[in-house]
Write a structure and sequence with these properties.
This protein is of the alpha/beta class and about 325 residues long. The protein has one domain. About 50% of the residues lie in helices and about 15% in strands. The chain contains twelve helices and nine strands. A hairpin with a 5-residue loop joins strand 8 and strand 9. Helix 2 packs across helix 4, helix 4 runs parallel beside helix 7 and helix 10 crosses helix 11. The chain is globular and about 50 Å long. The two termini are about 35 Å apart.
């Protein structure tokens, strides 16, 4: 990793001031209007990034070849709009009280992770669906003592601010890309019988496991499976959806119990089990997925892997 990557620069500070200004303005607006505005503005911004929008449509078409070009385009538009909705909701929810928070976001199945905390500990596993950031807040608002494993932003000022906002209701952050041995930091946390939230990696750059996903091969981080098997803790998949009135509902699913033996084959099988859950969610509501991230940017490496493992061709 470059030693200059996370250094502070004047440009970084200007970007940070832009974020702070946006947060101040959005936090002063009424909730529903703020969400509408964020959805509209970011939705329109797709015209300034035509290559990315075109690639989103390509990926959606590859995942859903049965859908018409019009359907594919609409999924891409709705996914792009959702990024604006997430931004507005994040700002609003991070600047509100616990009581007000519950008017906009509720959790179903919280008793499942509550039962694990202090007894077995556990991993909360969530994907880039609807508004994953909202559940990060909700877990703390509803009483969980949790940590999260996150990627550090390249801009140190923005990273510090995002970390502050993510933990405004409590919790702490471990970094997977700027911390010595984050795996062991997570292990120490789980040894305390606590909960740690892990967001499924869109495109793992190291320690990857190649797994078929939506008809193509993709690289995924196995850290959830590694931790679950090593520490023998349950994994709680979480699905978030947005109701017609804008209420965010976080569903905590029944825990997945890891294999008892720690070996590469079991790590792979359990990682695949976790990925298949999110594949099911994506098929149910394609537009809720963050298609702007390129999960298949390492296609050439994936093809090389398939050439060596033809039994996994999809």
């Amino acid at each position: 990793m470059s030693s200059t990557r996370f250094q502070k620069t004047p440009a970084h500070y200007l970007q940070y001031l832009g974020l702070k200004g946006l947060c101040i303005v959005f936090s002063l607006l009424p909730y529903r209007f703020c969400v509408w505005l964020g959805t509209f503005v970011v939705g329109v911004s797709r015209v300034f990034l035509p290559k990315r929008f075109k690639r989103m449509q390509y990926d959606i078409h590859r995942a859903f070849p049965e859908k018409s070009p019009q359907e594919v385009r609409q999924i891409a538009i709705n996914s792009w709009r959702n990024m604006g909705t997430i931004l507005a909701e994040f700002i609003q929810l991070s600047h509100t009280s616990r009581k007000k928070f519950k008017e906009h976001c509720r959790v179903e199945g919280f008793e499942k992770i509550q039962a694990a905390e202090g007894k077995t500990g556990g991993i909360i596993h969530i994907g880039h669906f609807t508004n994953w950031e909202a559940f990060g807040f909700a877990a703390s608002v509803y009483g969980a003592d949790k940590a999260v494993l996150a990627l550090r932003a390249d801009n140190p000022y923005i990273d510090e601010e995002m970390n502050r906002l993510r933990n405004v209701f409590g919790g702490r952050t471990f970094y997977s890309n700027h911390q010595d041995q984050p795996f062991f930091a997570c292990m120490r946390w789980l040894k305390k019988k606590k909960l740690i939230g892990i967001l499924i990696d869109q495109n793992a750059s190291s320690s990857q496991v190649w797994i078929p996903f939506m008809g193509r091969i993709a690289a995924f981080s196995p850290i959830s499976a590694l931790l679950a098997i090593k520490m023998q803790v349950p994994v709680f998949p979480v699905q978030v959806h947005r109701e017609a009135d804008g209420m965010l509902v976080c569903h905590i699913k029944d825990p997945l119990i890891p294999p008892t033996e720690y070996n590469p084959q079991n790590v792979r099988l359990f990682t695949r089990q976790l990925i298949e859950f999110y594949e099911m969610c994506l098929k149910e509501d394609p537009a809720s997925w963050l298609w702007a991230h390129n999960l298949w940017k390492r296609d050439k490496e994936g093809e090389q892997y398939l050439a060596q493992h033809p039994e996994e061709k999809v």
